[in-house]
Amino acid sequence: MHPLKDELYQRLRTDFTLFDFFQDSGPDGCWYRTLENSQECWANSGLLKLLGYAPSLPGIPEWSQLSDPEETKALDNDLRASSTTKSFTRILHYRHQTGFRLPMQTTLLPVADADGRVVKVLGLVRLLQTGPDALGELYQQNKRLNDILAGSNAGTWEWDVSTDRLTVNTQWKIIAGIETSDTFSGNDWLAYIHPDDRAKSEDIRRKYLSVSAAYECEYRIKSAIDGWIWVIERGRVSQRDANGRSSRVSGTLQDITVRKTAELALITLRNRQEQTNQAARIGTWEIDPVSLSLTWNQVTREIHEVPDEFVPELNSALGFYTDPKSKEAITTAFAKAIETGTPYDLELKITTYTGKEKWVRAIGVAEMSEGRCAWLYGTFQDIHESKMIQVRLRESDERNRIFVEQAPNALAMFDRNMHYIAASQQWLKDYSLKGQSIIGRSHYEIFPEIGESWKKIHQLCMMGAIDKCDEARFVRQNGAVQWIAWEVRPWYIRDGEIGGILMYTADITERKQVQQQLRINEAQLRGAFENSTTGMALVGLRGDWLKVNNSLCKFIGYSAEELLQIRFQDITHPEDLDGDLDLLEELLAGKRDYYRMEKRYIHKQGHTVWALLSVSLIRSAEGQPLHFVSQINDITDEKKLAQLRLAIQDQAYSFIAHELHENFAQTLAATRMFIELSMDGNQDRQTFLQKSLENIETLTQQIQALTQTIAPTTLINEDYFSLIGDLVENYTGQAGMKIRYDFDPDVSSADPATGFHLFRILENQLKSAARRQAQKVSIIISKGQLLHISVSDDGIDHSEHDTELLMLQDDIITRVELVKGKVKKLGRAGDLQILSLDIPC
Fold first, then answer.
1. Which of 25, 114, 214, 693 is 20 to 30 Å from the Cα of 227, by its Cα?
2. Inter-CA distances, 590 with 257, 277, 538, 630, 662, Å
3. pLDDT at position 273, please?
4. Where are the beta strands (DSSP E) in 606-714?
5. 280-292 per-position pLDDT tens digit
6. Positive or negative CA dihedral for 266, 271, 276, 281?
7. What pLDDT, on the 0 to 100 scale, is given for residue 778?
8. CA gap 298, 286 in Å, rounded
């Protein structure tokens, strides 16, 4: 027998007050326990049956399994603080074996020791409901409620405002990921709420509980399992005190992390899309075909240059197309898209709000539903600058064509397929093509005898292209269709040899596909990134490439997989890196929204390429930096084209200066001889002829000044004495050649025009040595009152019929004469070929 049970029986035999207490109460169950150790208790079979336990089983559940811990603690404190042993009644909650809490009326009788201290307590329990199946009905009601809550994945809670006690069910603890008892204080719960949400949640409770019976609040809590999670708390006042204040509140708790994560991701995606469009300067627009309401993003508004208060409408938007052709094109395309869903991609001219004319690119895509247009949207891009570049390129082409046609030597321009673009008169004469129309015809059609070996040479020389096509359909060998945009132009290296074809090309296949599949939000972002003819990339905060598009890969020669293994610092030209990093730091510090700069990258093949770089910073919804968006425009061709045009211009000026000098000098000499021979004893005639000679001398000086004026402009900036060193280095080791090069440093202060001709003289002599199979070459340049140049080599003696060697020799003599120098020796001396000359400084 349990000791407390035995003690209770003994008291009933001797204490009639206790016996009457039992008889008057008529309990459904009873329990008896000590205050010192609440787990030291005894419960009769009636109470155990009420709570779903089998009395016949060995062992009795502990008091903590049967009761509410918080209620037990509060009751014990009240009993210790009181000296009375009179009975009193309370509603206490008992825990059924199935888990639900069962409220029962409990009559309590304190038991004191010899000193009058309450040390034990007897409890007699009665069900609040009566009837043969009262307990079962309570259980079924509780079970139905729990089933409903379980199906909704909602946890329940109850808050006693006066005692700040919070009671929760098992599902609530699962959601919160908290290992705790069913009851704890409201202040303890606040510690789990995210600091940024704590004040907001308290304000909502305080506001609504004072004026309303219900509220709901979304906030984050710290889960021991999943970290910070989002929950929604709904509460309702279930009991108020005599003053109308909330005394008991109950409600539910649900996990909404998935929904909130999706909402935050959508916000971040929209922000990222808008910022990417801003960096790429791509505008977007949408039209509801039913209401005809029109929406522009910020970039579209900026392109139109409208004020902040301007509200776009369909009619006002069409009003920007003041050019008749552009207005007709956009009106027709818009109507066709609405009626049939046909997409459009147009280059049009608009007049902005401020009166500026500019070229734009408008793309429209219709979403059709049941044969009707449900939505019309697209992109809008300012292409005025590139359009003007096209105009300037066409003008430049025309100037180049005229230059070629008027050139005094045989010269022609070809496209990538060796079709004639222009040809000089000398070319037509040399190849007996006078009177024939060759422009646009294939070089191989005109000369069918050209063999495969020459065609291979042409192909090797044509490394780029100079022509223009915005969109071209290219069928690959495997049958796949590829769309490309390209520009081609012929170019020449400095020694006059054709170097190849400059080519700018961009794969726009994906962009063409995306034009048919463009969608709002994420689709627009993906299309702008993946299908842009401009290189674009997402770059990490430390410089690592996160995502790159095809244009960027093609521009710098790396595959996407290779780029994702390195950082942009690894392929940036060292001279441009510090400036780039400084601007990135300003972005991170919030000092600027984006930046733009010209910089150089190191191509995978080792050469340098130029780019116009635009960068902006993407931040999270909380404002934290995520990554950079980079727009990289290839401007290498523009840089090279500028150098090419300057080189061609220099060659033309040099030739003209030479021709003027040579032809005029010969004419002058003949005229002077004629005048001198014509002089006789006639004083008047002698005076007249003498005056004519003076006028001719003056004219000679003017012609010489003119030839200096039109000397090549590159001589002003080029350090040809450094280039001579590069020339020697390039020829060293060629065909086993060894070169000794002695250079007086004072020579570098000589006139740049002198340096230019000296460079050509040494280049021609080295070409001659290589052609004559020289093994050893000596070059000595010294400076006194004159520049002295001495070149010797051990090459074999050349044939008098070797035309190329004779041409090189004639060019050397001509250039020495142009700088008023003197050839001291040009020919054989024993086993050596000698070139010795003096040139004025």
1. 214
2. 31, 19, 19, 17, 66
3. 63
4. 608-619, 625-634
5. 678 889 998 888 8
6. positive
7. 93
8. 13
DSSP designation for 715: G
The predicted structure's pLDDT at residue 257: 85
The Cα diameter of the chain in Å comes to 180
Task: Please give the pLDDT value at position 717.
Answer: 45
Question: What Cα–Cα distance (Å) separates residue 135 from each residue in 43, 107, 142, 215?
Answer: 18, 19, 11, 33
Say which residue the tokens 């890196």 belong to.
Answer: 577
pLDDT tens per residue across span 141-186: 555 555 555 555 678 888 888 778 888 877 788 887 777 666 677 7
User: What count of Cα atoms within 13 Å lies in the side-chain half-sphere of residue 489?
Assistant: 19
In this prediction, residue 641 carries a pLDDT of 65
| C-beta of residue 634 within 8 angstroms of C-beta of residue 537 | no
| CA-to-CA dists, residue 807 to 651, 760, 810, angstroms | 18, 13, 5
Q: Residue 489 has what pLDDT?
A: 61
Q: Which amino acid is at 55?
A: P
Do 517 and 523 contact (CB within 8 A), yes or no?
Answer: yes
Predicted confidence at residue 504, as pLDDT, reads 43
What is the SS3 string spanning 756-787? HHHHHHHHHHHHHHHHCCCCEEEEEEEECCEE
Which residue type is seen at 605? Q
Residue with tokens 């009851």: 183
Cα 586 to Cα 119, 186, 590, 609, distances in angstroms:
74, 46, 6, 25
Q: Give the C-alpha separation, 516 to 709, whole Å.
A: 58
- Residue 661 neighbours by CB under 8 Å, 6+ apart: 703, 704, 707, 818
Helix runs in 82-133, H state only? none
pLDDT of residue 312: 92
Report, as ranges of residue numbers, the positions in the chain whose pLDDT lies below 50: 131-132, 134, 476-477, 502-506, 709, 712-717
Which residue, among 377, 383, 315, has the nearest Cα to 348 in the 3D structure? 383
In 426-497, the DSSP E strands lie at 468-475, 481-492
Burial 671-706 (b: 16+ CB within 10 A, else e): eeeeeeeeeeeeeeeeeebeeeeeeeeeeeeebbee
Question: What 3-state class would DSSP assign to 206?
Answer: helix
